[in-house]
Amino acid sequence: MSNLTACKDWVDEVYQIKRGDIVSGGANGTANIQARQLTSRTNYLKDSLEGLRLGERPYLSISEAQAAADRGEIPEGAIITSRTDNADFWFIECENIGGVIQPTGKTLFSGELVSYLSSVIRSTLSESEDSVIDFVAKNGVRAFRIRDDMKTELTEIVRLMTGDSGLTFSGHAIDNYAPSGWLFAIHSTNGLVIAGVKEDGTVVGFGGNGGGSGGGQSGEIIPGDTAATYDAIRQYSGPATVKDVVGNRIAGRFVVDASDTSSPDDGGGCLVDVLGRRWIRQADYVSWDMFGAPRVPGATYLAFAVKAATGDRSGAAALMNDQTPADDRIAACFDFAKKMNIPVRQNDGVFLWKNTEWNVYTCTNLNGSTIVTTDISGVAEDRWGPIPGLDDDAPEPVRMFIIRSRKARIQLTAAQIAALNTTYAKYLKSGSCQLPMPDLYPYRGGLLFVRSSAVKYSRNGLVDVPRQQVLYRDFARIGKNGALTDMMVENIPDGSVAEAFIVPKEDSYLTFEPPHFHESGNSRRFYNIEIYRPMTIIGKMSLRTDAYGSAPAWVKISAHEVFDVEYKGGQCDGSFQYAGAYVLSFRDCIDMEVKRFTGMYGWGVNGHHGTKEITFRDCMMNRIDWHTFGYNVRGYNVTLKGNGINAHGGGVWKFKDLTHIIPVNSQNTRGEAKQNYLVQARENYACDCDGVLEIDGLLIKFDTTDIPFTASTIGYDIVRPVGTQTTNDRHDTKCFNRISVKNVVVDCQNALNFAATPGNFSFTAVRFIRSERIDTATTGYKTYLPEMISVDGMTAINVPKEYNVHMNLIRFADDLYKNTFGSRRKKRPDGTNAEVIGRDIVSVINNPTVELDTNNTVWLPGTSANWTDEYKTSPYSWIPKITLDNCPNAVVDTRGAISTVHVTGGSLARYLNGNAESRMRINGSDIQLMPNLAGNLYFDSAHAVAFGCTWLNPAGGVSYDGSLRGASNENRGDVTKAPNIPSSVFI
Asked: Which residue in 357, 309, 378, 394 sits closest to 523, CA to CA?
């Protein structure tokens, strides 16, 4: 008979024999599973009990353990624990060695000893809001700490000072010149000598048998104490080198820096005592209060805010007349923060600013504080600043905060600029992604800026006004070994580079959390925040404007030649006058992001002069405005109220989920404009746009309490590639190459009160006020029209039942024939060179009449009598191929230009042509002609052909006396309503 073999394991669950199990024997048989598991449990418990008996439990004494060993209960080599008479220990560990119980040296401390050691450590470790562990000597010297970020600091050991001969290590000398009386010294920031050798041979701080002292100046440590004010330190002449100021809002530790003999007393960071010693604040951040910045009393500010808000300007100004500006105190704070490389924090208080510029070099959080401006703030004149090469001596604007970099911009030398003008000129062209100039390679990640002396535009045609000239310039981030991260977009004329510099990449990002700005005063202009440092993050800003008067050169956040800047948004009023001012203004910058920003009222919120890669997210503004080029401009979930978008530049301009709200015209009282268009090319810079414009998702709404427009205004335009201005800006006009508009909804809100008679109002996707911006024949400058226009999905909702709301694809002026260079590409074999595509453009027709020359889905007005041979034969005359797909009630007027039109689906209401060069093909559509009020129908059957269409009776009960060409059409109308259509065209 064999026995079970079991281990010594604890089995959590014991197997239960199931119905159907085959009860078999053997080592792994089902019948033996339970027995084997239970035996393993028993063996495990047995060993555990024996372990307790053999010493894995505490004996009351070593003698008791020895007796157990003598009885054989503790085997040779066994480890046991025993209590002890020593009060410092709870247990000691012992081992049976040759039958004798002997301590191993391992112990477990008693609770009393642990409590004592804890109290000693607590008395050594200082509480600190910026450290996990902080060792501070009784004289206040912080010898060692572990910071909140877990970095270790030996903060006081800062220098080794030697005698004239220095210390020599492998032939190299370290010599910082010891103070008088010493051969060399290891010195701390507060002047304490930690160790050294005096000229008389005395050894300090090394200990041992050499007779050295235990360290300290002259072997003595002088304790520090506290002071209630800065003056207590200034008037102090005693031996202490550390003092703790305990005054309200100024508290902090000050330590003597014996090495500093020149720093001035700045009133908060460096204090100079009667002996000329410099007491330096020891802090991880500083505040304006620490430097004595005078606050505006809370009650005074509250009264000021009420008077300013209610229009009592003189009363508000009177309250601030007695307040002291905080300019110099705040400036001192920022200067000390730069010196110590620590942040500035100010989380409450109201302060008055006059005109001092505050230079910011470190992360700053001013959230919770308020800056007030009045009639003493800034300047009362326009100051846009110098324009290099054009107006170099123009006065600089006054700036409040200037965010600067510690890394200086690197100006290229004359020799390097000469190389750009010769060897590397071919790389300074649009489309270039490289500049293989070895001098640039070390600055990878930085920005290269290049300015030409050649004029690109004369703004408003003012060629004799220097500030109205726009010079060629371009900029890009420097890539690796000659690569450019950003594509060049300008064709810099060869040999014209006059200036070039590099903006280095930063080692980290700087975050600036602005204060609340409350502005008042008459015509005071200044920049609140100027950014000269790349890689900067501006926090959310709250700005209220109770100012008045003239506003040009009023800018809130500006940036110059930087990259990678983020603005987290905020709530900001626009300027106090409807002219020439902006909340945001970026000049020659790359990679900007604006998020969750609300900026309303006044002339504009965004005014930019040269950007690449800028994005707006979740914003509500009154204007997005480019003066000179913007490349790759994007907006997501943006609402525009009043004004719209002034486009200039190229690349991709893409807006998704855009809303345009059209308010009551109240520029003088509210700073809100009412205009009947959304996007327009910047007119006084030649309407120069070269790229793609895409709008995907647009909601248009009107203020329902106002008549939107006068009777003379019969339409609203989503995109105007060419507007009304005709100044010769000395440059070609380039419309966007491709314009795409998708998913447009006009919400009439059941309350429209259009003044246009007879109640027909049209919304046009793309409208050209003129086909030539300026006359090519007399100026030599051309106007290039889009290569492709696409509109996909456009309609109105909530239209009052008495109105028509027409959705139109495209509209030109009657001068298209003049532009014989309008196309960027030659004509195709079919005679066209441009695509115009409209899909699902759905007008709402409640009254079945459409006046002539008012509301046309496709509108190319004019007469063929004006066409010249050059227009008809030029390969670059703009000749569109127009496709309408599922566009109900389509009205087509192409009398003023050559075109081909293809209509599929939807329905056709009118076709006016009158020339043999143009034609229309209709497939699978309904044809239901729509009259004007006089009952006239318009259908050029001689130049249209229909296949597979359905003919319906004309709307309004009128009759059609013309014909129809085509085949396989269906006639669902009355013969009497169209008696001249031959039956052969019908099935």
From this structure: 378
Q: Cβ distance 379 to 526 under 8 Å?
A: yes
Q: What would the pLDDT profile of 191-247 be if each residue is shown by its tens digit?
A: 455 566 777 776 665 544 444 433 333 222 334 567 778 999 999 999 999 999 988
Q: What is the DSSP letter of 466?
A: G
Cα–Cα distance measured from residue 872 to residue 870, given in angstroms and rounded to the nearest whole number: 5
**Residue 627, both tokens:** 């003066």
Q: Measure the CA–CA gap between 17 and 185, rounded to whole angstroms.
A: 85
CA distances from 804 to 748, 796, 851 (A): 11, 10, 11
For the cut 90, the answer to whether the pLDDT of residue 694 exceeds it is: yes
Which distant-in-sequence residues (6+ apart) come within 8 Å of 687 by Cβ? 648, 681, 721, 722, 723, 733, 734, 735, 773, 783
Nearest to 822, CA basis, from 831, 834, 830, 814:
834
Helix, strand, coil percentages in the chain from 3-state DSSP, rounded to 5: 15, 40, 45
pLDDT, residue 579, reads 77
The pLDDT value recorded for residue 172 is: 38
What residues contact 658, with CB distance under 8 A and at least 6 apart? 635, 638, 639, 640, 695, 697, 698, 699
The label of the residue with tokens 């419309």 reads: 735
Give the pLDDT confidence of 778-797 residue by residue, as tens digits: 999 999 999 999 999 999 99
Is residue 534 within 8 Å of residue 475, measured between CB atoms? no
Q: Which amino acid is at 875?
A: P
Q: What is the DSSP string of 872-936?
A: HH-TTS--EEEEEES-TTEEEE-TTS--EEEEESSEEEEEE---TT-EEEEES-EE-----TT--
Task: Identify which of 70, 132, 123, 147 has the alpha carbon closest to the alpha carbon of residue 101.
Answer: 70
In contact, 398 and 527? CB cutoff 8 Å: yes
Residues 329-359: pLDDT tens digits? 999 999 999 999 999 999 999 999 999 999 9
Say if residues 569 and 619 touch (Cβ distance below 8 Å).
yes
pTM attached to this predicted model: 0.78
Distance CA 478, CA 949 (A): 60
What's the alpha-carbon Rg for the chain, to the nearest Å?
42
* CB atoms closer than 10 angstroms to residue 865: 8
Paired tokens of 854: 């008012």
For residues 874 and 864, give the distance between their C-alpha atoms in angstroms, rounded to a whole number: 16
With both helix axes pointing from N to C terminus, report the angle between 313-321 and 298-309 in degrees, rounded to the nearest 10. 160
Please name the residues in contact with 789: beta carbons below 8 A apart, sequence gap of 6 or more.
Answer: 738, 739, 765, 766, 809, 810, 834, 835, 836, 837
**Kind plus residue range of the DSSP H or E element containing 333:** helix 327-340
**Tokens 């009860």 correspond to what residue?**
23
Which residue has 């003595």 as its token pair? 220
The three-state DSSP-derived secondary structure of 967-984 is ECEEECCCHHHCCCCCHH
- Give strand pairing partners of 626: 608
Instruction: Write the CA distances from 545 to 549, 584, 671, integer angstroms.
Output: 12, 15, 12
Distance between CA atoms of residues 742 and 654, nearest Å: 11
CA–CA separation, 95 and 336 (whole Å): 65
Residue-level pLDDT at 431: 97
Q: Which of 857, 747, 745 is nearest to 795 (CA)?
A: 745
751 three-state secondary structure? coil
Q: C-alpha angle with apex 551: 550 to 555, nearest 5 degrees?
A: 160
Task: Compute the distance between CA of residue 887 and CA of residue 927 in angstroms, rounded to an integer.
Answer: 12
What is the 8-class DSSP label of residue 477?
E
Q: Which of 568, 537, 646, 559 is nearest to 611 (CA)?
A: 559
Burial 427-440 (b: 16+ CB within 10 A, else e): bbeeebeebebeeb
For residues 850 and 107, give the distance between their C-alpha atoms in angstroms, rounded to a whole number: 103
Check residue 174 and give its pLDDT.
Answer: 40
Residue 110 to residues 56, 91, 116, 300, 786, Cα–Cα distance (Å): 19, 8, 10, 63, 89
